[in-house]
Design goal:
Blueprint lengths: L1 H31 L27 H5 L2 E5 L5 E5 L2 H8 L5 E2 L2 H4 L3 H4 L8 H11 L5 H29 L3 E4 H18 L14 H11 L7 H8 L12 H27 L8 H7 L4 H10 L11 H15 L1 H16 L1 H12 L8 H5 L2 H13 L6 E5 L3 E10 L5 E7 L4 E4 L1 H5 L2 H4 L41 H18 E5 L6 E3 L7 E3 L10 E6 L4
Parallel strand pairs: 2-8
Antiparallel strand pairs: 1-2, 3-5, 4-12, 5-8, 6-7, 9-12, 10-11
Helix pairs in contact: 7-8, 7-21, 8-14, 8-15, 9-11, 11-13, 11-14, 15-18, 15-21, 16-21
Bound molecules: protoporphyrin IX containing FE.
Length: 540
């Protein structure tokens, strides 16, 4: 009994010392941070710093220069740099910069250690095995799924017109979101969500996905927030309601079933000749998960380099989270831009109609120059992610291409950063930088892609001289997938319909959320939406 008391007392003393030490660290941090003399916005809130302004931070660089600091949680300094050399250094140095706990807050319990959140060797191993599944040849094979689902969406909107008359007022974001969910289900793991089917049955996985994401249980709850301050708390389990726990279990069971079925199918492939037609069709599945499992089972991969079942399973929610709302919102912003520039909509339609098929190949889609320019300009001006965060895991010196002047007037050609400091990668600010794109950087001008400015050549983005898919070894693995999906969508939609905004363009703003959804200033309480007036396009 006495021994138990001594253990408990020692534990309580250890916790008290740890808390005191953390508190002293927090209080002293602003006075010792190596970023403390950088210019930046003032903050009057010790707890949240400038975090509530971060979504509007794209013009900070114009105010304070490309490299600045702002206040993060608990008075900490966060480095914000739009300097292309600094970004190149950070994005290509994954040993020194990782995704911080803060950026994992909303999704970590859900996606597990899939490609999005894995770090270090585990990430490199997953990426090596997964890269081939996202290559051009593999995406070419998926183009038919993108076009079929885009056509299904036109049918849903046409039936709404038949019911309500023309033009019909339709929330295009809702339809696009269902379409991209169906696509990621089929192209990701040959799973039919069937969410576009208005007469469809309830879908277990779709419901579980909505429960987990709609519940806020994965959001920034107070407990999760405290875990940032006191990391040992992460060893305590996060409860969540019974409904959310059930939804997690359903998703896990479905994921496991899919992985098991695909493994069996691959093992049976050698016997394909003896299989019936249905089984043979299944054995030819070309979805991302099948390709990944196949690559993982390849005899040329040493056993030590193979992914575990747990790692493979984690890719199912990873694809859902990373590949669904990003593409639907990007396409919604493309329709927004085309509806306020009707002459561009007409030009795009004419280009797309000149192709005499409803089902072009990926290569035919890629040969449409204005479609390509519209997609590039949409992703530059309206990237689905505004920012991302990294944490310095070691003290580092970051080189700058443009020297920065600190608040004492001293000039620096580098920034020193302390281990544990956060770095904001400002995707939107770089994409909209007037220094890079010129004075018209905030305008939607697809023709600018005819001649890319020299300054844009230095942007360390993986695609299109922009940061929308990020750069370095943690850039978006699915960028080819989403580009072809967006092309298939726009191709099909502008050939079928004419789009007008149903509200004044000033009413549509980017919602402050991880993915930038359109929302109406006049109806913020209704959540994200993009209402449009749609009428069928009458071909001559
Ligand atoms: C317009 C559509 C998309 C955009 C703008 C986009 C953007 C991004 C960005 C910015 C990142 C880096 C995030 C960070 O590190 O903080 C990322 C990572 C990732 N994306 Fe995408 N994405 C899109 C579509 C997709 C699709 C369709 C898929 C899958 C089918 C996908 C799968 C992933 C994965 C797995 C990662 C993690 C990569 C890694 O850490 O190695 N994305 N994406």
């Amino acid at each position: 009994m006495e021994a138990k008391l001594v253990v408990l007392l020692s534990l309580a003393i250890a916790i008290a010392i740890y808390l005191q030490w953390r508190l002293i660290q927090l209080i002293l941090r602003p006075y010792t941070s190596s970023l403390r003399y950088l210019p930046g916005p003032t903050s009057h809130n010790w707890l949240l710093g400038n975090l509530t302004q971060v979504y509007q931070s794209s013009n900070w660089a114009e105010q304070y220069g490309d490299t600045l600091k702002y206040k993060g949680l608990f008075g900490s300094d966060v480095l914000f740099t739009a300097d292309t050399r600094a970004l190149h250094h950070i994005l290509n140095n994954t040993a020194a910069y990782c995704r911080p706990e803060l950026a994992r807050l909303g999704i970590s319990d859900f996606v597990g250690e899939g490609l999005l959140l894995a770090e270090g060797e585990r990430h490199r191993q997953q990426r090596r095995i997964m890269n081939p599944a996202f290559g051009p040849a593999q995406i070419r094979e998926l183009t038919d799924i993108f076009l079929r689902k885009a056509t299904e969406l036109t049918k849903v909107w046409s039936s709404s017109m038949a019911e309500h008359g023309e033009p019909a007022r339709i929330d295009v974001l809702d339809g696009l979101s269902k379409m991209t969910l169906d696509v990621i289900g089929l192209a990701g793991f040959s799973y039919e969500f069937d969410s576009l089917n208005i007469h469809g049955r309830r879908n277990e996985l779709n419901e579980a996905f909505n429960t987990v994401f709609g519940s806020g249980a994965n959001g920034a709850s107070l407990f999760r927030f405290l875990r940032l301050l006191f990391p040992p708390l992460k060893y305590l389990p996060v409860g969540g309601t019974k409904e959310v726990r059930n939804a997690h279990q359903i998703m896990r069971n479905i994921g496991m079933r899919l992985v098991r079925e695909k493994k069996d199918m691959i093992l049976n492939q050698g016997k394909a000749a003896s299989l019936d037609e249905d089984a043979r069709g299944k054995s030819n599945q070309r979805d991302l998960l099948t390709l990944l499992i196949k690559a993982n089972m390849d005899p040329s991969i040493p056993k030590s380099q193979r992914l575990s079942d747990e790692d493979i399973l984690a890719q199912v929610p990873t694809f859902l989270v990373a590949g669904h709302e990003t593409t639907s919102n990007a396409t919604a912003w493309a329709l927004y831009a085309l509806s306020i520039e009707p002459q561009m909509q007409t030009r795009l339609r004419e280009e797309c109609l000149a192709l005499s098929t409803d089902y072009p190949s990926m290569d035919e889609l890629n040969q449409l120059p204005f479609l390509d320019a519209v997609i590039r300009e949409t992703l530059r001006l309206h990237p689905p992610l505004n920012n991302t965060l990294r944490e310095a895991v070691t003290d580092d010196v970051i080189p700058l291409s443009k020297p920065c002047v600190d608040v004492r007037g001293r000039i620096h050609d580098h920034v020193k950063i302390d281990k544990g400091s956060m770095v904001q990668i400002p995707i939107l600010a770089v994409n909209r930088s007037k220094a890079i794109w010129g004075e018209d950087a905030l305008e939607f001008k697809p023709d600018r892609w005819g001649k890319v400015p020299d300054a844009a050549q230095k942007v360390p983005g993986t695609w299109g001289n922009m940061m929308s898919f990020l750069g370095g070894s943690r850039s978006c693995i699915g960028y080819r997938f989403s580009l072809v999906e967006m092309k298939a969508l726009l191709f099909t939609l502008v050939r079928a319909f004419e789009f007008d905004l149903a509200v004044p363009k000033e009413d549509v703003v980017r919602q402050n959320a991880s993915v930038q959804r359109p929302i109406l200033l006049s109806a913020m309480d209704q959540g994200s939406q993009l209402p449009m007036l749609i009428r069928p396009y009458q071909r001559a």
